[in-house]
Write a structure and sequence with these properties.
Elements lengths: L1 H15 L5 H19 L3 H19 L1
């Protein structure tokens, strides 16, 4: 459930940014994923990885 919520949050944050590129989306997603993982007591590395991948995909699609 938390993974779905985290993914939805990252996608919503990335979509709100206009003119996202792949690298910018990955950086924003990675930072957001790490922050959410740290706040929830989960693995920061995994959170950053999931957020980075999600951000890169959204950045590519939106741009």
């Amino acid at each position: 459930m938390r993974k779905i919520l985290l993914s939805t949050l990252l996608v919503a944050c990335a979509v709100n940014m206009s003119a996202c590129s792949t690298l910018r989306g990955a950086a924003i997603g990675g930072a957001g994923g790490a922050g959410v993982a740290a706040a929830t007591g989960k693995s920061v590395e995994k959170g950053a990885a999931v957020g980075g991948v999600g951000g890169a995909v959204v950045g590519t699609v939106v741009d």
